[in-house]
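Protein modeling request. Please complete all fields; requests missing the sequence field cannot be processed.
Requester role: graduate student
Desired output: 3D structure, token encoding
Chains: 1
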Amino acid sequence: MLEEWHYAQAPQDGNFPEEWVASSIKARNPGRESKTEEGLSRVSMLGGGPLLKELIEQDPVSFLGRGHFEKYGCNMAVLVKMIDSLSRLIIQVHPDKEFAKNVMSSDYGKTEAWYIIGGREIDGQEPYVLIGFKPGMTKEKWRMLFDKQDIDGMLNALNKLAVKPGEVYLIEGGVPHAIGTGCFLIEIQEPTDYTMRVERKTQQGIVFPDEHCHQGIGFDKMFDCFHYDCYTEAEVVKRWRLTPKLLSRDQSAEQWALINREATELFEMQRVIVRQGLDRKMNGRYCIAIISEGGGCIGSGNDKFDVCRGDLVFIPASVDTISFEAGGEPLEAILCFPPK
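Delivered output (340 residues):
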């Protein structure tokens, strides 16, 4: 679905379900340590396709904004991905900020959020996600399921939710989760690749070394990373399914807040639907724009360029106003922002 979304001539499903967007973070994939640039984004519009990370380091104030640079340095403080799951992804957990600081010596955990932009039925299964422990789970029970590698037991211990386009889910650090089959989504998260896995191999049979399960902290500490609070499905929906809020609407365009500061202070996400045109003040913040539907052009002043579905655009903080113009059909874009 991801390649089809990018208008590939012969779209195919691959073994890697992720595309990292405007990333300055290296990936941590088992068996691929020699891929020293994996996860890092290149800027295709510039000659030679330089790494975005290198451009930011050359002029961080222009790219990230002075306030951002003074607080976070050259770290973008956010990471965005496209995820297209042909098969269910591994059951996993990410550290919250406290655990990341105390155990992993990191200023960032890995709280994340998902915006569902599409989906497909696979082998009779509608798109779904797994979030949070069902009532009755304890650390001892969870460790026992892991030691036995009782995958069915672990799956049945998590709440299973059918998902549909337009829904937004916040996945806080410490909450066990997995993306099920047939999901096509945008993920925004804290800028780390710390993933603790409780399945020792993928459904395709790829075996994870121990370190890629516990990220080098050992299995005992890995189980301290989980939050063992338990929830019913209704409680999961109430706590972690976010309700988009309309910010503005007229005949030219409408703007929605998908993730705002009421939900988390770690990142923001908005959706714009442009029927004619929209001039958007950026207020000194950089933005990652994902053209999710339609096409047209975007730019600033006299510098404009054509875009279509699947285009991924980094908008530097030095851009005062970004203009969106729809083509023959409405242009939809998802705007991803770092913390204020």
